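Quick illustration, no need to memorize.
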Amino acid sequence: MSITLIAGLGNPGREYTATRHNLGFTVVEALAAAEGLSWQHEARFHADIARWNVRPGVTRWLVKPQTYMNDSGRALRLLLDFHKLPVDALAVAYDDLTIEIGRIKVTESGSAGGHNGVASLIDQVGNGFARYRLGIASLRPAEMDIKDFVLGKFTEDEKIIIQQQLTRFVAGLRLLIESGSALAMNSLNRREKNDTDQA
């Protein structure tokens, strides 16, 4: 099944803008902007949605669940059901505390890894959706709680890294959408490994 729904995870509300936990929102917003798409709030789906008419006969939807991170799966379950789509038609971009900031990893299954948004997705839609994992790991003060860290704003140095990598994040997401998980994993995950080896 080709990828039809592309979701970014995050929390709605101005206070969460530009936080580490909203990096998924940031990347799908950048893709929408690159395609000249506009966002519409769809209350019945508890989500902001941008319709993407890729070419005649091919439509995709970019999605930002507005349910708060811990309940992200509910909005995406509603959308999958409405469009009669299987779980493997869904790709989800989200922040990952286990990956170095600025790096990407694509996977298709596994545990939630402590990410409440992913836990909600697994609970509501099951495993099998494509995961576009965006690294946010960096130096965290020892006394800082993980929740406070992910809900905190990027530091100035981190903002520079994210801004420098944003075009690559969008390009990688396009690769996942257009070519599928296997090719994206082979290309992006291997490139990340090679980058690390050279560092």
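The chain has a mean pLDDT of 91.
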